[in-house]
Queue: 2 jobs
Job 1
Amino acid sequence: MRFIPSREDVDPVGDPYRTGNVLQWEAVESVGPRQVLVVDSRNDTSAASAGDMLVTGAMKRGAVGFVTDGAFRDGAAIAALGFPAYARATTATTRPAAFHVADLNVPIACADVAVYPGDILVGDRDGVIVVPRSLAAEIAEPSVEQERLEAWLHQRVRDGEPLWGTYPPSAETLKEYEAWKAAHQEHQAHQNQEARI
């Protein structure tokens, strides 16, 4: 969803249904399962990109996230949903005070990152990244492997290993990791075989 600045003759403050600018509702009503609603708010937090009603609506339609480079209203209510919702701020100001919904399902900028319909978004407590769909298969396994390696390295640091040679890993540490991984995979394969018997 792409916002542009509102204008008084097009977006009088009040009920958006009366202005005819209901694309925001259409976005929520048409979002599908496993989709993420991404909003280009021009990095502007002066008004809300959405509130808990719209975020809840998207969640109930199967969306798996709601992302904006602007603000949300009803921050506490959205947080209580347990739904992945990302914004730069929380505000009490409603969307029509500053924004007009100009487009749906077009390439946008969100937090100065290009987002195209069909891109894959991955989020955690630290933020969100955008993965072009054409690169997803290519980077999926290396990404999982990097997470696996970092978890192993983190455990070593928790066990008291010095940072030098552990993080970033030296050639010797990487060799130890490969040996651990091979043993772990063999153990996992043995457990899977026992489960089938």
Note: The mean pLDDT is 92.
Job 2
Amino acid sequence: MTLSAKDVLLWVAVPYAALAICVVGLFWRYRYDKFGWTTRSSQIYENRLLRLGSPLFHYGIIFVFLGHVIGLLIPESWTDAVGISESMYHAASFSLGAVAGVATVAGLLILIYRRRTVGPVFSATTRNDKMMYVLLGLTLALGLGATLYGNLTGHAHNYREDIAPWFRSIFYFQPKPELMVSAPLGFRLHALCACALFAFWPFSRLVHVFSAPVGYLTRPYIVYRSRDESLGTQRPPRGWERVQ
């Protein structure tokens, strides 16, 4: 297949540029903006809609992510080798993926509605947040739409034959852009939006995905002591006497 300059740009240059910006941007953000490495929680302003939308979105996106990991990183030959046929894999991935995708999109819509209709939350919304919601929502909508459209019309696309090998070839540093040229338009747009989202990731509140309270596992206990000398009759251990 003869590849045009546009094909090489879209399916080689763009993914590598997005990956480089994401990695370097995360390092820079952690190195020089640790105090900005936060979700900027707005729970103090409104809690009712947040309690509904946040679990739907976060639990849904976790399963969406796991589905992408399995679908893109595990070759079709591996599942065939363990006795999982393509029809079995497709039925399981579509049923679970559709539920996770719908939950994620529903949760995101609730969070966007909350952010737009609750005054204090809307006032705390930055242009960066708005761009994040646009990229995130567009990526999710295109992915879910391409999947549902193919299955509902009876022309489900087996992305493990072209999109998944292309994705792995990027990390092998042996890109195969010809695989994406023949993929359906919906999946191609989904991939490009995902590249834009990952390039934007380090500069948004989405960096909190890479945060984990690991320090809590090894931090010392917090000791609470009363200032009232009349409370408690036990003599304090050596080194813990009250300061006069």
Note: The radius of gyration is 24 Å.
